[in-house]
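hi got a favour to ask and not much time before my train. below you get a single protein, a line of residues and a line of whole numbers that encode the local backbone shape. could you go over both lines and see whether the tokens make sense for that sequence. a few lines back from you is plenty, here it is:
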Amino acid sequence: MILDRKGILALPIKLTVSFLIIALMVPATMSAVDTISEDIDARKLLDAAEILGDRIDKVGSEGPGYRTTFILEIPDSGYLEIGGAEGRVVRAMSDGHQVGRVLLSSQVTGDILYLEGYVILSIHNDPDGEGVAVEEL
């Protein structure tokens, strides 16, 4: 058996290379996790916009005088924007940026309404048939 110090000298180099590889992988992994988290939050927000859009379209197709009330929970990561000049769109907004939108077949009348958190909504057709009104209760 030959007793030399090759193994003892190579060990610190192997450990250094291993730690260097791990140190280079951590930022990339954390960035991927953050991106996935943002995508999940945006998807939850868009799901809430789709639920609201479906309810608005259902009320719009029922005819004048139809009214419904329902509860909508909007994720804390953003808010929904409806009404205004572009009343056929429900926008999902997060940090001031649009992360998605839902196009409606019914026109939403009135001023822009910003919805966030836990909301109770009343949706009804205008008696004169101009569109659908959405009110937060």
Observations:
- Residues 6-136 form one domain.
- The mean pLDDT is 86.
